[in-house]
Design brief:
single chain, 733 residues, alpha+beta, Beta-Lactamase, Jelly Rolls, five-stranded antiparallel beta sheet, five-stranded mixed beta sheet, 28 helices, 49% helix, potassium, ion transport, voltage-gated channel
């Protein structure tokens, strides 16, 4: 497949930027939904927060970001009110809070709340940062001692947040903040194109393509002139200016190679994941690990010795042959332009002509060695001596006379081309043993080259590029489909990107068709290896190996581009999805309910009653996402074959889903919210009492609201059951 441009669509990398920036320094943070006024539910929690508090991610998601499940006896009521006020006012807050872990142990932390805006300036998320300062603020410390270290500890935490928010702010060049502890700019939650330096050259740009063709021509020039200078010019008088008429062009080519090395240090490349890498340091490391040393050796400026009139020996000419390593780049060009048959044929013909040129140089060296030898038998019958006699310029004393260099080169090239393409014509022939051995070798090589280049060009292209041919055939079909049906530009881009990305992952190979003829045992083992990430989820821990093997055969892979909807609200849920890479957001009525990242599981729990599961929200990709999914139908079939695990799966899947898409599962959010061991019984009773009063008044005044009342009654009943609180009498019906 030809070199791809890479994945270029704008992405929402907010989650990745936060995770990468906090990694290893201060990774305890939450993201809360600022648009959901009912408790500001948590839409993302970091692994560091889970380690700090002891809660699982599934236990934290969708709870209120006020973190009342972390409150306890020593949590200040004043701090609670300040946090609520900051959330209501959509402004920042910093404070020292005493929280409680899941096991009941208290810990002190510095809490920072930062509102996050989108491109419209609306606050959509809250960033909660937790800095553990238990060692500095133990229970044994006095209040005065706490204040002494408070400023230093808070400055450390705010510095981390400052550096984070700086990633999202656009600042003028050369402008530095007056103080590192000044109020930082707020980060933005939005889709944005990748920002790159203007000194970075795009590998797919037109200017880079023209430069590559120029370097390709320079490479061919080197492949022609270096053997010619080594074999022909080295035997001429070093002080003869005519023998080094190419000094200026040789120096120019060396400068081009040196400039090409510099440009390669500033040229983007496509990573193994398909992303275009713009980072200068990554480009530097990638180039140093691939072509740098070969390019450096080929760019050594040997010709500057001639420019400064420095006497050189034949060894210098031989050292210049290392420039032929630059021809390895030709393989890369062949791969890039393999989709163009005319270019491939031209390059093959050029390689054939280049081989003939190299053989002509070797043929001339053999003739020179025969002339310079002291053997009286072979000295006078060599091909070069015969040529000199025909041109009436014979050699005298092995050094004087002989044909001119252009005549000798033309005769050598004529002999090699006639030998490579046929059996020769005899006017330039081999006479000595060395010449005959070389003629035999060149004839054998010519037979092979003739068959490869002239006889089987089409067959070679089909054999070498069969997969590429299939790729271009399918790509042409897609483009014809787009043209015939006049699809808009957005759909066209989505189709092409999806096809290119999936092709780069599987190279057009259908795994099911490929493995169809293999034994079931081998197919299951291969499927388990390919899907080992999703099979290592806690929900599958109790499954037998046979069950896992059956599940692995039904797991499929899919790809989602930024901005595409994976699931629409109200649709029938077809599969449960596991996020292998990238990030997605769960939306309902324009509000962010959850942000999903690598390792998250999204779908719905299975019940025997509901054969069709309706979804309660949209799932939209923020970045390029690789997903694995298993259809609901296949999952039911496998669980039916293993009923002992099916019942366990039905109870465990609810706790392993990062977000439950089942319609009506919103009420379960209240259930999960009420499971915190630190939730006060008084607050629960007060909440139930208020709900009962509202329901009573609603039933008395508006009989049409019975459906809403029934739903709320069900939620309150769940709260009663979970918290073991005696139910009160209902007012009205």
């Amino acid at each position: 497949m030809p070199v791809m441009k890479g994945l270029l669509a704008p992405q929402n990398t907010f989650l990745d930027t936060i995770a990468n920036h906090f990694d290893g320094t201060h990774s305890n943070f939450l993201l809360g939904n600022a648009q959901g006024r009912q408790g500001y539910p948590i839409v993302y929690c970091s692994d560091g927060f889970c380690e700090l508090t002891g809660f699982l991610r599934t236990e934290v998601m969708q709870k209120a970001c006020t973190c009342r499940f972390l409150h306890g006896a020593e949590t200040s009521e004043r701090v609670r009110q300040q946090v609520d006020k900051a959330l209501e006012g959509l402004h920042e807050y910093q404070g020292e809070v005493c929280f409680y872990m899941k096991n009941g142990n208290p810990f002190w932390c510095l809490l920072d709340i930062v509102p996050i805006k989108n491109e419209k300036g609306e606050v959509v998320l809250f960033l909660f940062s937790f800095k553990d300062v238990t060692e500095s603020y133990g229970k044994s410390h006095h209040h005065s001692n706490r204040r002494e270290g408070e400023a230093t500890a808070r400055e450390r935490g705010r510095t981390v947040l400052y550096h984070l928010t700086n990633q999202f702010s656009k600042r003028g060049k050369g402008k530095l903040p007056n103080s590192v502890f000044q109020k930082p700019s707020l980060p933005e939650y939005k889709v944005a194109a990748v920002q790159k330096s203007r000194f970075i050259l795009l590998h797919y740009s037109i200017s880079k393509a023209l430069w590559d063709w120029l370097i390709l021509l320079a490479t061919f020039y080197v492949a022609v002139t270096v053997p010619f200078n080594v074999c022909f010019v080295s035997h001429q008088d070093d002080n003869d200016c005519d023998s080094r008429s190419t000094i200026a062009s040789d120096i120019a080519v060396e400068m081009l190679f040196i400039l090409d090395i510099i440009l390669n240090f500033r040229t983007t490349f496509v990573s193994h994941s398909g992303q275009v890498v713009y980072d200068a340091r990554s480009i530097y490391l990638h180039y140093c690990g691939t072509w740098f040393f070969i390019d450096l050796i080929a760019a050594l400026p040997f010709d500057l010795l001639y420019a400064f009139n420095i006497t050189v020996t034949s060894l210098v000419h031989l050292l210049k042959t290392v420039r032929l390593l630059r021809l390895l780049r030709l393989l890369q060009k062949l791969d890039r332009y393999s989709q163009y048959s005319a270019v491939v044929l031209t390059l093959l013909m050029s390689v054939f002509a280049l081989l003939a040129h190299w053989m002509a140089c070797v043929w001339y060296v053999i003739g020179r060695k025969e002339i310079e030898s002291s053997d009286p038998v072979t000295w006078d019958i060599g091909w070069l001596q015969e040529l000199g006699k025909r041109l009436e310029t014979p050699y005298i004393n092995s050094t004087i006379g002989g044909p001119s260099m252009p005549s000798a080169y033309i005769a050598s090239l004529y002999f090699t081309l006639s030998s490579l393409t046929s059996v020769g014509f005899g006017n330039v022939c081999a006479n000595t043993d060395a010449e005959k051995i070389f003629s035999i070798c060149i004839m054998l090589m010519g037979a092979l080259m003739h068959a490869v280049v002239f006889g089987n060009v089409t067959a070679i292209i089909q054999r070498m590029y069969s997969r590429r041919s299939l790729y271009h055939t399918r790509m042409k079909d897609i483009k014809d489909f787009i043209r015939v049906h006049r699809l808009p530009q957005l759909l066209k881009q989505r189709m092409l990107e999806y096809f290119q990305t999936t092709w780069s992952v599987n190279n057009g190979i259908n795994a099911n068709e490929l493995l169809h003829d293999f034994p079931d045992e081998l197919r299951a083992d291969i499927a388990m290896h390919l899907n080992k990430d999703i099979l290592q989820l806690p929900v599958f821990e109790r499954a037998s190996r046979g069950c896992l093997r059956s599940l692995s055969l039904h797991i499929k892979t899919s790809f989602c581009a930024p901005g595409e909807y994976l699931i629409r609200q109200g649709d029938a849920l077809q599969a449960n999805y596991f996020v292998c890479s990238g990030s997605l957001e769960v939306l309902k009525d324009g509000m962010v309910l959850a942000i999903l990242g690598k390792g998250d599981l999204i779908g719905a729990d299975l019940t025997a009653q509901d054969q069709v599961i309706k979804t309660n929200a949209d799932v939209k990709a923020l970045t390029y996402c690789d997903l694995q999914h298993i259809s609901v139908r296949a999952l039911r079939e496998v669980l039916g074959l293993y009923p002992e695990y099916g019942s366990r799966f039905s109870s465990d899947i609810h706790h392993n889903l990062t977000y439950n898409l089942r319609e009506g599962s919103e009420a379960e959010g209240l259930t999960r919210f009420s499971r915190s061991p630190r939730l006060s019984q008084v607050n629960v009773c007060l909440f139930i009492t208020i709900l009962q009063m509202v329901i009573t008044m609603t039933c008395q005044n508006s009989p049409k609201t019975n459906n809403v009342t029934t739903t709320v009654k069900h939620c309150v009943a769940q709260l009663h059951n979970i918290n073991n609180i005696p139910q009160h009498r209902w007012g009205g019906d």
